[in-house]
């Protein structure tokens, strides 16, 4: 007979990184829910911090690309930032349902030139795919909170999309970066992000989301970013 844990595991399989920066944060849980899902709550905190950190880094990478006149690379970074924000909101809302409050916090953001930012983004996405999300997914199974497991899978598969997109550019980020960047700037991507799971595609899909299976209604077309005024 299949146990509840095994059922969740196989369901997730078929429905189917930025390093966490150490900084002080304030997350509080209601004692009753903390006792019911103590590990899940700690993982949700960690995942939220990881995704909001990624969101802020991609925003900074976007602005740097714009300042270097890489309009389409900036557009890609903006799309990835939106996806990361959706992941963070999912975790934050789930914590709210468990009566866990998330207060605002300052996140240190590190940025270089666009070529280096692409390399860092590819490295961090790969870490999330191969290390971060496999680890927290296995941990979440122990307490079987269905929505936490589902949101974990949404994020994990979205990061697989991110890594592929970045690798397409990053693989040529050596001596061929200049010619490749010019080629990219002659393209006309139209990024759309699913507001349910963060799925990121470069044109409006005609079929339901491949990650969460919701209809195309939930895909939002993203506006091209503009360069912010100097602080």
What does the model show?
The protein is mostly helical and 231 residues long. Helices cover 59% and strands 6% of the residues. The protein is built from 7 helices and 5 strands, in the order H-E-H-H-H-E-H-H-H-E-E-E. It has helices at residues 4-15, 31-36, 38-67, 71-97, 114-141, 146-170, 177-185, and strands at residues 27-29, 100-102, 192-194, 200-201, 219-221. Strands 4-3-5 form a 3-stranded antiparallel beta sheet. It has a two-stranded antiparallel ribbon with strand order 1-2. A hairpin with a 5-residue loop joins strand 3 (192-194) and strand 4 (200-201). The longest helix has 30 residues, at 38-67. Mean pLDDT is 83; it is low at 1-32.
H-E string: HEHHHEHHHEEE
Mean pLDDT: 83
**Termini Cα gap:** 62 Å
pLDDT under 50 segments (min length 5)?
Answer: 1-32
Helix content: 55-70%
Shape: globular
| Radius of gyration, in angstroms, nearest whole number | 18 Å
Strand order of the largest sheet: 4-3-5
Binned strand content: 5-15%
Q: How many E-type strands? A: 5
Separate helix tally: 7
**What structural class is derived from the secondary structure elements?**
mainly alpha
